[in-house]
Amino acid sequence: MKILVAEDDPISQRVLQANLLEWGYDVTVASDGGEAWAIMRQAESPSLVISDWMMPGMDGLTLCRKIRQMERPGYIYFIILTAKKGVVEALEAGADDFLTKPFNPEELKCRIRIGERILNLERRILELANTDMLTGLLNRRAFMEKIRQEISRTQREKRPLSLIMADIDHFKRINDAYGHQAGDLVLQRFAEQLTASTRPYDFTGRYGGEEFIVCLPGTGRSGAGSIAERIRRQTEDMEIMLPDESGPIRITASFGTASHEEGPRVDVDLLIKRADEALYRAKRGGRNRVCGTRNDED
Q: Which of 80, 101, 210, 225 is most buried, with most CB under 10 Å away?
């Protein structure tokens, strides 16, 4: 876990840093509140802050109030560490804990562990809220949140982005012939295939029923088509053992791709609509195939 130490006293700063490193934490140090505030506005900033109260420029309580006004995913646990009395004032400013100097290292360690448990619990709750329970992929709401963030980032960096919409062919026949338990297994195995066939920085969601969606950051139309075709072939080659071990079944899937490479800001809903239209063309054209959008194929 990343911890930010905001402390203007060099000796206290070194003592805190040494203890935290010994306890196995990733430590970032700031010498005043302004420097700490700049660090907290960076991407992937620490999720736990230990701050002195009295610092030049920006004090610890002001830093805490500004952090509480930030719009960012995930909670930031804030510990005020100071020789000044005023626990009520610190808590009212938004601090989660208060420890007076000189501090007992073991007590500080225990208080950090409390903060760590709270942060881990929050992450677990968010994970459950964002995950499709059957497949373990992002659910539709979480995928939409993430793709909007990704589009904003790729727009700033002027990089391409592509989507793949995938649909398991004749899925209703599987449920009718083998039962819903077998259908659930097919969905799980197909989700695993999607994850195994994409890169670590790609992300996949269950869009609904037997329909899935993959976001490919930094990938243009030709790359999206190649990736979709690879997934199609690997899906066609899969053997899925049924729960009752009566024998393997095979499935196929249809894929539609849509890409945004240059130009004005892309509309998320429009990009998904284009991928969905391409998927419909693949299904209408005989299934077990990949189609790009009309614009991508021109």
A: 80
